[in-house]
Amino acid sequence: MAAYVALLHSIVLAPGRRVVMSDLRDMAEKVGYRNPRTLVSTGNIVFDTADAPLGEIEAKLESAFRSTFGKPVDIIVRRGTDWLNLAAANPFRDGEGSQVILRVMRRPLDPSALDTLKTYAAPNQRLAITHGDLWIDFAGKPSEWKLLSALTTKRMGVGTLRNWNTVRGLAEMIG
Which of 91, 92, 111, 145 is the most exposed place for a label (fewest CB within 10 A)? Predict the structure, then answer.
């Protein structure tokens, strides 16, 4: 058995209706994943299962989510050991925990993506790609910056944002 982290792209089902974490844990258990646990209401779940290809786990969870909640959602899965390595690779540990954001990608970003994103970034914002995922130090509230609008699936591919506090919390859950 190995630990895995699953990140949901969005946990909003409809206006005013969100996924309840206990329902998400129950869903993971029903498809055979062991010891499912969530981190507050962040749309993240850590679970244990036998080693399997990430795409297979993603497809299984996405299908279960659609069946359980009636809405399709992109789910990105990482092995626990890879998540720990990703958290350890944060290049902006000196930044504020809620202002440092990780965009976890389904497919690794090409380093040339930084050139495009820098055109949207303010001078005090920092960008880096580690392990194919994008780290951003927004140097302020992310929603107040033009850079956030550049981080779309259409522009970058399937990915989801998590702040450093969440990344760290998931790493602690894995151990």
Answer: 111
